[in-house]
Specification:
By secondary structure, this protein is mostly helical. It contains eleven helices and five strands, in the order E-E-E-H-H-H-E-E-H-H-H-H-H-H-H-H. It holds the Pfam family KilA-N.
Length: 240
């Protein structure tokens, strides 16, 4: 999951782009801004109920696509960014203004936001963020190559799982189950620095192999991803 910074605290978003209202409430609480205010679950059942329904109607989406709860380490209440802004407004004028500014920069793709987060992070966290960003670049390059070489539908997931099996020891669903993580977890957000590096290396090697051999289609490209990740795992002496 991606993490924003609100009142100096991380606020996660999940793979569906929903924002953690739980993290927002914790950030406001730490800054003494939310005294007497409802936590996300109570707010959603009471004061926020009408607005959540309104957002769903306007977007023609069911509630489960704009508001969700999950358990586990990365669990909590997640909601569409419009709902997140409404919740921030309910909690505090100060929090509302800061969240508005952060989301304006986030939605516009302001890369300096990530740089500011890195500046405030501990050295170990800053190193992880650097690896995560590098991994995003490698992932985007591989995805573009896969699309250009005829990969479609579940073929993208098959290619990703071919890499995960060598680096993490199983497909995404298997790793999430083994670690007790929600199925929607972005595994890259729970990888350590070494795993991020190996995943990025695998994706770059797979991209090059597919292009040089001009491999096409779901199966051929998934095989290349498997071959690349296996080679990287052997090189790093990894036994998932």
């Amino acid at each position: 999951m991606k993490a924003l910074q609100v009142c100096g605290k991380p606020v996660k978003t999940n793979d569906d782009g929903l924002v953690s209202l739980t993290d927002m409430f914790k950030a406001g609480k730490a800054a003494n801004l939310v005294q007497g205010k409802q936590d996300p679950s109570n707010w959603a059942r009471r004061d926020g109920r009408h607005f959540i329904g309104f957002v769903g109607a306007q977007l023609n989406m069911s509630e489960r696509h704009i508001y969700a709860t999950s358990r586990g380490k990365s669990g909590g209440t997640y909601a569409h960014w419009q709902i997140a802004l409404a919740y921030a407004k309910y909690l505090s004028d100060v929090l509302h203004m800061e969240v508005n500014e952060v989301f304006a920069r986030y939605k516009s793709g302001d890369v300096t936001l990530a740089a500011e987060i890195a500046d405030k992070a501990a050295p170990k966290d800053a190193e992880w963020l650097a690896r995560r960003v590098q991994g995003t670049v490698a992932r985007n390059q591989l995805t573009s190559t896969l699309a250009a070489h005829g990969v479609a539908g579940k073929g993208f997931a098959d290619c990703t799982n071919a890499i995960y099996k060598n680096i993490l020891g199983g497909k995404k669903s298997e790793v999430c189950a083994a670690r007790g993580l929600p199925k929607t977890t972005n595994l890259r957000n729970v990888m350590n620095s070494d795993q991020l590096i190996m995943t990025a290396m695998s994706e770059l090697v797979a991209k090059k192999r597919i292009e040089v051999k001009n491999q096409r289609g779901n199966q051929a490209c998934a095989d290349s991803c498997d071959h690349a990740a296996h080679s990287v795992a052997q090189l790093m002496n990894v036994r998932p």
